[in-house]
Amino acid sequence: MKTIQVKDEDYKLLMELSKELQTQANHSQAFPYFWEPASEELVVDVNDEGEVDYVFDHSRNESYTLEEYADCVPGSWKLFLSSIDSDDKTYCQELESDWHDYLEFQDDDVTTYSSNWEQSSDHNPSLFLSDVKGYIEANKHHLGRNPRTYARTVQCMPKMEKLIAAIYRLNPQPSEKINDEARRFVIEDNAHGQEG
């Protein structure tokens, strides 16, 4: 067996990271895995059948929700209300469909479209769940709706598998402390090592 010399601080860091890698949660993802921040972002629905409707005002070069646009163009909102004989002057969900149709057919300066909330990953991966949790906490104002951790596997990447197995062997943890997927991986890796 070979030995290498490392600084005390590097040795301590490697032992801590090896332990964390083996004992962290895995959200049932196949091992080995890495983590990324994920959130939901609005993506334009190409069939215009999305869950959130928008108005693009060509004169302002801006997009608005239907409610925001009613506030933005009070004159158009009043004309719309008079066209449907409504006494209600405030925006309400019951009028949203009619307001959408009015804008689509009466106002040449705007285009209506819709979007859907879809999962999006912020590509800042880490082998450590704690890294990604910290990233989300520090950057949630830049992320989309419902920011969270997302696990992905690297089980088809043999060099990554070998690297993670080597990190495990630096500081093997008791079997009962290792998560299930990691335990299976370590046992398989040990069995392969004994065969060779």
Task: Please tell me about this protein's structure.
The structure is a single chain. The protein has 196 residues and is an alpha+beta fold. The protein folds into two domains: 8-37 and 123-195, no CATH class; 43-117, no CATH class. 43% of the residues lie in helices and 22% in strands. The chain contains seven helices and five strands. The chain has helices at residues 8-23, 66-72, 74-83, 96-106, 129-139, 158-170, 180-195, and strands spanning 33-44, 52-57, 62-65, 110-121, 145-153. It has a five-stranded antiparallel sheet. Strand 2 and strand 3 (62-65) form a beta hairpin. Helix 1 packs across helix 6 (158-170). The longest helix has 16 residues, at 8-23. The radius of gyration is 27 Å and the shape is rod-shaped.
Whole-number count of domains: 2
The major beta sheet can be summarized as: 5 strands, antiparallel
Any idea what the shape is? Answer: rod-shaped
Poorly predicted sequence stretches spanning 5 or more consecutive residues: 192-196
Radius of gyration: 27 Å
Q: Helicity, in percent? A: 40-55%
Number of helices: 7
User: What is the β-strand count?
Assistant: 5
Structural class: alpha+beta
Please indicate the percent range of residues in DSSP E strands (runs of 2 or more). 15-25%
| Strand order, largest beta sheet | 3-2-4-1-5
